[in-house]
Inverse folding.
């Protein structure tokens, strides 16, 4: 953990001067940059050290403990985020990622723009040593037991060794940031039996099962899990390729929204139903709190030299504060170092190609 | 349409003696064989000609119009349905499929056991000429607009040409059995843009777009659809590989069950909530009817020489009757012949490999 050239907190701040600094991009939130800044204030009140990037004039009144870098340019809505992240060095998300890459902050939080965060993070924070591919992980708001799914879209086509690394990356996230001890990791498939699945899943299953025989202690491999097991809590972490994971995530979101919408619509359809809905509402509140996506901070960008968190653009300040606090927790627990160590022990790090002269070449993933 | 050696209906039956005969396997239903037989009675009352296979002693009182073949052996719960279908010629599902293969019936209905139906159908009805792979299609109970998803599990690994055929097969199902005129076909992907997707999706997209340029008139290709579009009615038919489709289907089922379960649980949690639930229930009934999976008959087995329908094992007699009536509708409309014709016009039929001497070799899929 290198605190780097982080700004010192003002006297009287709750923040520990040695605690990690979180670089926060304020652009990309549906409710505007001030909502993200308000989330940063909430997080700072709980001791987080925050370095804000965004349109300073729009961020509202902020305490002295929060340093602001005026960065009004946003690429959150860019059609082609990869190209925008390359060609817009003054974009707030690029500046925030660069602050992390240069050691002025120890984790990145940027609202809304997953594609831009992935691109800006990969270009400026860089892949961690020995990692094939960064991945996006999302703690699904499953009642009673959060389940982390990855990859949810960074890599449409994956190889076996990518899936194996996702298992370690997801397990490290679950144990450091999401309070799950020795997470149970499942492999998403079209059947529970080990011989069921696509060619990729069969290979990944064999590789993960072999890790289990070798006695990995950072997670338990519970084998294949089906689509129907995602909600059942059969696993704490579910690994899959980014194509399947992205479809699964968006499908879950739209099915649950459709169902809640239908209940809401039914509860507006007659006087009798309105009364019923009003009486039922308090009882449903507990369930809605349990499936509140803001509670777990959003999506996590794993596999870079520092942790990234991408809260959903529609989050409120409470969700942005969660994202910042969880980013800090991940940085404090050295999630990146832990992942590296576990992968190294498992012999699952990517080896850099070695030239004839023995020099390391840059790896290209 | 060859009525074959179908049994003549008794005098006074509503059934047209030239109408297709539906072979129905009664084993595999959660409520037992008598529930399937009761569904057959309902279908017969609407004019269907049914040939029942199952434990005759357990089927209850049946009208003379329904012919029964005593077939007490069930492989519906077999661990390995492929091997069971091969080695159990006396199984009711095998006998029913053989009746279809031999022309004594023109479509197959078997409850519950998708794997066994796929195996028994493939062995005994055989793949239709020019089809690479049979597929399982399921009309999803989406409110306001049923959406047919395929493949939902017959083929874990697919190639481009399989996906293209699925589009034609699904479109033929939608237009003949599900009352959709010129169905809109979408390709499930992790992004709407044509350049988003796995390598397979990029290839399949290009092939389907090319078909569209050539002016196919049996469906409209609407491009990629995301997981979030499945519920939105952006497409009437959504094609994907059987790995992704199976995960998507089971995920949708479990998310909607979890949501309904949570509402039910909330509505039992206090006296006030119970009253609310009771008042809201009638308004929710319309929604529940709309998402009733029994209404569309179950899963459809496409790509064989005859249509197969696999109603869910938990269906009641109403669902089994639907399955039989829709199987009949597909047979009457010659869904298999229509699919063949459309694939032929599109140049998308599988060509039999030709030996040096010009003789056709059996194709092996």
């Amino acid at each position: 953990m290198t605190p780097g050239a982080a700004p010192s907190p003002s006297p009287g701040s709750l923040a520990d001067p040695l605690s990690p600094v979180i670089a926060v991009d304020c652009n990309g939130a549906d409710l505007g940059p001030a909502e993200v800044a308000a989330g940063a204030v909430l997080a700072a009140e709980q001791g987080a050290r925050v370095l804000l990037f965004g349109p300073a004039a729009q961020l509202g009144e902020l305490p002295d403990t929060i340093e602001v870098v005026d960065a009004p340019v946003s690429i959150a809505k860019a059609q082609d985020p990869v190209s925008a992240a390359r060609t817009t060095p003054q974009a707030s998300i690029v500046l925030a990622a660069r602050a992390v890459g240069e050691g002025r902050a120890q984790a990145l939080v940027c609202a809304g723009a997953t594609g831009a965060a992935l691109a800006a993070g990969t270009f400026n924070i860089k892949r961690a040593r020995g990692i094939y591919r960064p991945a996006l992980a999302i703690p699904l708001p499953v009642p009673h037991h959060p389940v982390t799914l990855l990859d949810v879209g960074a890599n449409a086509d994956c190889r076996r060794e990518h899936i194996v690394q996702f298992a370690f990356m997801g397990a490290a996230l679950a144990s450091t940031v999401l309070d799950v001890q020795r997470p149970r990791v499942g492999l998403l498939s079209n059947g529970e039996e080990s011989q069921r699945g696509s060619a990729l899943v069969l290979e990944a299953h064999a590789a993960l099962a072999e890790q289990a025989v070798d006695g990995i202690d950072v997670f338990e491999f519970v084998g294949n899990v089906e689509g129907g097991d995602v909600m059942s809590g059969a696993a704490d972490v579910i690994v899959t390729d980014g194509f399947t994971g992205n479809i699964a995530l968006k499908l879950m979101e739209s099915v649950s929204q459709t169902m809640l919408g239908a209940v809401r619509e039914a509860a507006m359809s007659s006087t009798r139903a309105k009364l019923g809905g009003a009486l039922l509402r308090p009882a449903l509140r507990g369930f809605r709190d349990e499936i509140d996506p803001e509670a777990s901070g959003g999506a996590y960008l794993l596999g870079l030299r520092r942790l990234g968190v991408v809260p959903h653009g529609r989050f409120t300040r409470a969700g942005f504060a969660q994202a910042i606090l969880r980013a800090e927790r991940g940085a404090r627990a050295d999630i990146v170092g832990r992942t590296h160590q576990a992968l190294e022990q498992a012999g699952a790090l990517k080896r850099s190609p070695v030239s004839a002269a023995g020099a390391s070449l840059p790896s290209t993933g």
User: Anything to note?
Assistant: Chain B has two domains: 1-131+303-349, 138-292.
